[in-house]
Specification:
Elements: E1 9-13, H1 25-33, E2 38-45, E3 51-53, E4 58-60, E5 67-69, H2 75-78, E6 82-84, E7 87-88, H3 92-99, E8 104-109, H4 115-124, E9 129-133, H5 136-145, E10 150-155, H6 162-169, E11 173-176, H7 183-191, E12 195-198, H8 204-213, E13 217-220
Parallel strand pairs: 1-2, 1-13, 2-8, 8-9, 9-10, 10-11, 11-12, 12-13
Antiparallel strand pairs: 2-3, 4-5, 6-7
Length: 230
Amino acid sequence: MPSPKRRVQRIGHRGAPREFPENTLPAFARAIELGADAVELDVHKTADGIPVVHHDPDVSAPRSRTKKSLSSMAWEDVARVELAPGIFVPSLEQVLALAANKATVYVELKGRHVEESAIAVIRKSPALCAVHSFDHTAVVRAAEIAPELRRGLLFDAYPADVARSMRNASALDVWPQWELVDPALIERVHGEGGRVIAWTVNTTDSAERLVALGVDGLCGDDVRLFGPIP
């Protein structure tokens, strides 16, 4: 019998940032509307322990041009930060409610010790989620808190020993910057029973080359650039 076709996920990087402010509810809704199988986002934690979706550790405070760290602000104040007319910084809970039963949500753990509060929100949601991070110790902590949750490792340099890194963190997903992907990396990750998810893929040519190499997911700013994927 012929082997089943490999499924390559189309992942909206911070939603659809070419049309709406990244990491916002309209951006995620648009990515899903455009056919994304999943969305990827960043989380930090407020002073009162609420995981919020934002890339940078700080934002412009309400009615002010000065930056203020998310970790020093209460959620009540963060929720009033207007990134564009009528578009605000969302909580992780709000994003998961939007994506539930529509798309997988890949949560990048960015804020200091955000994993416990993020996982608490994930566990209460029906949305299908996984976590990943450049901070591999955060992934290890996530494994201790929620061993049932799928985990991934981000790389912006070629991993010296990707199999060892995966085992040390009990991670199955490997997220390399797309130019790092080569057949050897894919073979090692697949040999560990894992997946390779390339970021940030923003041209059709790159997407086609990566699919031909055998990646399992493409994360980019416009999922329409990926074209038809098996």
